[in-house]
Amino acid sequence: MNFVQPIRDPDMILYMKKFLKEQSDRNYMLFVTGINSGLRISDILQLRVRDVRKSYFNIIEIKTKKKKRIDMTTQLQKEFKWYIEGKEDHEFLFRSREGLNQPIGRSMAYKILRQAADYVGLDDIGTHTMRKTFGYHLYKKTGDVALLQKILNHSDPAFTLRYIGISDDMMNQAIKSFKI
Asked: Which residues contact residue 47 at a Cβ distance below 8 angstroms, ignoring those fewer than 6 apart?
């Protein structure tokens, strides 16, 4: 398992959003999409304007080749509404400044997130952090590991808890309250 972590602190999420928004709408929306959808970066980068005109994503996951429908949160729909205004259906959502209608690459997405993480003082951040952040906060809100396991397409609930850092949280809490 890789060592990137979810962003647990809601204030850090807000600081990163603010930093990214000041950089560009694209960078902000990349982060907002990741933390509100649970999609992998490879699937996010392939999204086009037409994919977000509805209230859900219909995608075929690049990693698993499985077809997946994911309802968008009302907030994410609202964010997309202003972001795609004036854009054409065939355009990639997260266009590169190079080439004609090409998406940014994984390495650029990583640089964007690392720069924001450095700005707010977070370590262990990568493109997978967005997916883990989504999972962590959804689990904290619902407490439903089976639901999260299904959303993230994991085969084992224990893996899902490790993946989003809940196992680490429980271990750290046990150590903090431990005394002999």
From this structure: 33, 57, 59, 92, 93, 94
